Amino acid sequence: MSEPQSPEPALSIQGDSPTGTKDEDAADGIQHSHRMLSFSDALLSIIATVMILPVTHTEISPEQFDKSIQKLLATRIAVYLMTFLIVTVAWAAHTRLFQVVGKIDDTLALLNLACMMTITFLPFTFSLMVTFPEVPLGIFLFCMCVIAIGAVQALVVVYAFHFPHLLHPQIEHSAHRALYRQHILGIVLRGPALCFVAAGFSLFFYPLSYLLMATVIFLPYISKASSWCKGRLVGPQEPPAHSVEFFTFDLHEPLSKERVEAFSDGVYAIVATLLILDICEDNVPDSKAVKEKFHGSLVAALSEYGPHFLAYFGSFATVGLLWFAHHSLFLHIRKTTQSMGLLNTLSLAFVGGLPLAYQQTSAFAQQPHQELESVRVSCAIIFFASIFQFAIWTTALLHEGETLQPSARFGGREHAFMFAKLALYPCVSLLAFASTCFLSRFSAAIFHLTQIAVPFAFLLLRLLVRLALAPLRALRGLSLPAHRSEDDARTPLLPSAH
Which of 66, 174, 374, 405 is the most buried (most CB within 10 A)? Predict the structure, then answer.
């Protein structure tokens, strides 16, 4: 039963060397990769998130908002979600790759910079894809970038295996090192190989290219499903003695919890920054307009932007509280698996869409006829961002002995509180969305009311959970003495029955 924990030591490959060896490594040109990985996580989270900008800056006038514009916006959102997930696939591959490569030197650092440079070009190719969706050049360039990223990561693998002292000790001292290299290269190059095929199809049938790119995202899960089907048909097979336990398609394979947290924090931080950039860009009055229209009164000019500031504070509170729930969740998580990583990625993809929610809600005053649809879009984004957090929690509970701290497991002192904290936003956003079906006239007021009420609900949540549990504990306390009294009543009758 303890076998699932066997890959765990493979995660602690950074920073495990004694402090006395760091000076020796530096003298040999070998470096610990903490700072490089932190830089990579920050850069990848920024690249993944800023791809929402072409969607949020879609110019839509009130008379243009018809079915064709809605279809265009929906297409851009779908393409954003797909490209966000592909970037996170590259991040996950980077994370798992540097679980194998324990240390770096100057060459590996420069190869990593080449990989990051290629990744920074992805937002430009994405802008081409959403601006010219019927022109294949955008998707062709996007695929070529993914291929280049995979090629650089393959060079990292080849270089690290050529100098085994850079590898994780389990692989460095293994007699099957060549098989490990072949196995890891095969996994690293599968995604770029699919993108190579997608780039070819983009030249004459681009819809199939999108399907192949989507396959890149779910490749581990497709492989896992095919392995399961093969096991059902052929029967279970014994794994080889040299199997790699920490660079596989196993959904329970552990990911670096620290890097998952760092990447997630980067997404939340850049989303919060994009909100204030929109405020600075769109809500600073023009000096000439202040003099002519408002007679030099800056206060009067700023009062016209009241809905924008209300939307900003509500959106920032939403981002901050979603981060707070994410922080609380990972505080109680001991180990992050691939399936939890996918759910976290899906949650972050919708968190990245919160600037779009801000753009929608800040336009209430200018476009009141779009108010209902704007509220529904915002509620949907918040719901999916929070429900995937709840799904992470549910997935962790399925293997709580390995993935959760004891206090957060079933019956633990923090279990009910965490359940309520993670369920709050899904319930509130779903309730706000449902209310727009019955009280459509008050949809904006309901949405703003929920944005104001949720922070206070978080403050009072622990007290509310205790009040809700008190009657249940009282009923349980009453039921236990009742059972005891029945047992006591039966015991004196037993001797008389003889």
Answer: 374
User: What pLDDT digit, counting tens, does each position of 150-187 carry?
Assistant: 899 999 999 999 988 888 888 888 788 888 888 888 88
Q: Is 33 helix (H, G, I), strand (E, B) or coil?
A: coil
- Per the DSSP assignment, residues forming a β-bridge with 110 are none
CB atoms within 10 A of CB 407: 13
> Which residues, at least 6 apart from 335, have a Cβ–Cβ distance to it below 8 Å?
8, 11, 254, 257, 402, 403
Contact 41, 267 (CB under 8 A): no
Q: What is the mean pLDDT of each run of 10 residues along the chain (498 residues)?
A: 39 43 54 84 87 67 55 75 83 84 88 91 83 81 89 92 86 82 85 85 76 73 68 62 50 75 91 78 70 74 72 84 93 87 90 79 56 80 93 91 87 85 91 81 76 84 77 68 48 38
Cβ atoms of 340 and 400 within 8 Å: the answer is no
The count of other CB atoms within 10 Å of the CB of residue 392 is 25
Angle separating helix axes 34-50 and 257-282, nearest 10 degrees: 40
371-408 residue pLDDT tens: 777 788 888 889 999 999 999 999 999 988 888 988 88
SS3 484: helix
Contact 119, 149 (CB under 8 A): yes
Q: Which amino acid would we find at residue 6?
A: S
CA 105, 106, 111, 116 dihedral sign is: positive
For residue 216, which amino acid is it?
V
Q: For 104, left (φ over 0), alpha (ψ -120 to 50), or beta?
A: beta
Among residues 32, 11, 199, the alpha carbon closest in space to that of 108 is found at 32
Q: pLDDT digit string (tens) for 393-446?
A: 999 999 888 889 888 888 888 888 888 889 999 998 998 888 887 776 767 777
> Would you call 130 helix, strand, or coil by DSSP?
helix
* Structural contact between residues 422 and 325, judged by C-beta atoms closer than 8 angstroms: yes
Q: Which residue, chain included where needed, has tokens 């079933």?
A: 410
Element (H, E) at 317: helix 306-331
Angle between helices 177-202 and 206-217 (to 10 degrees): 150
